[in-house]
Amino acid sequence: MKVLFYGTKSYDRQSFEKELVDYPEVQIEFVETNLTPVTAALAQGYDAVCAFVNADVSPMTLEILRGLGVGLVLMRCAGFDAVNVDYAKQVGMKVTRVPAYSPEAIAEHAMALALAANRRVHKGYNRVRDNNFDLTGLVGETLHGKTAGIIGTGRIGAALCRICKGFGMTVLGSDLYPNQSLVDQGVVDEYVDYDTIYEKSDLISLHAFLNEESHHMINDESIAKMKDGVIFVNTGRGGLVDTQALIRGIISGKIGAAGLDVYEEENENVYQDRAGEVIDSVTARLCSFPNVVMTSHQAFFTNEALGEIARVTLDNAKAYADGTDFVERSVVC
């Protein structure tokens, strides 16, 4: 079973090579270039390709891969937005993912962003480095006793609900499929609709799926319904938020602090070092606000998560070679 890994970073190589000792039937080659229609031809002679969330697995890419005899696309991430699933089905290709490699890691990062933005930790750190110990402009809000609104209460959202409870917060959940067990356990105080989340929450965190209905669910209208000075966090998908509306909300003071691990313009930048370039982007504008903290899609990035990603991906590669069942809930098509 030969697999070509696209978009490889040093940490990918390390985590997968560590697990490969238990998968002698799987052979891996790593390339740094990302998977696109232009680079798909590199997969000549391979049974499968492995890609990440920033790949371009469009119909053209899939057509080239299928023509080369590639039958499996292994997405080493939970999301599969980058894959044209309908076309993959049409040409008879299998697509798998890693459905839940570390929900706690992402939830912990979401809270870290909320705390850093709310308490201006990044600004305070930079001041101390410059021997500036003034506290002006660094005041934040105490989370204890406040209300957290969690949009999407799957594994990640549920993990954040537990964290918020540990902070002594009231937790409101909103989900198309409410999890009553979270209410029974006292993790979620109540399930409510989106408008109630906006109106009552002091902290709002997004963990919803991105689709046509949820695209730009955070917009001028929804932001106007939020409390003044709300703490807003997005570790879900950039497309859930209308970035220009978010900027307007920050400027108006409606959004008092924002922590963003994902954003609409990230695809060209994610996991790339562009430090030597001049980039005209909305990212630079967001970073100019003192109450905004941004990271580069790193909420998942822990040793435990990387290990789980490697194991599930290799299990699926082995299952494809052996003709056995893929890992549960990992099959996209």
Structure, described:
This protein has 333 residues and is of the alpha/beta class. It folds into two domains: 2-101 and 302-322, NAD(P)-binding Rossmann-like Domain (Rossmann fold, 3-Layer(aba) Sandwich); 103-294, 3-Layer(aba) Sandwich (Rossmann fold), CATH 3.40.50. 35% of the residues lie in helices and 15% in strands. The protein contains twelve helices and twelve strands. The strands form two sheets. It has a seven-stranded parallel β-sheet, sandwiched between helices. The chain has a five-stranded parallel β-sheet with strand order 2-1-3-4-5. Strand 10 (230-234), helix 10 and strand 11 (255-260) form a beta-alpha-beta unit. Helix 1 crosses helix 12 (303-322) and helix 4 crosses helix 6. The model has no long low-confidence stretch (mean pLDDT 95).
Main traits of this protein?
333 residues; alpha/beta; Rossmann fold; 2 domains; 5-stranded parallel sheet; 12 helices; globular
- Helix share of residues? 25-40%
Query: Number of helix segments?
Result: 12
Beta-strand content estimate: 5-15%
| Strand order in the largest sheet | 8-7-6-9-10-11-12
CATH superfamily of the largest domain: NAD(P)-binding Rossmann-like Domain
CATH topology description of the largest domain: Rossmann fold
Largest sheet: 7 strands, parallel
Q: End-to-end distance, in Å?
A: 20 Å
| CATH architecture assignment name of the largest domain | 3-Layer(aba) Sandwich
> What is the overall shape?
globular
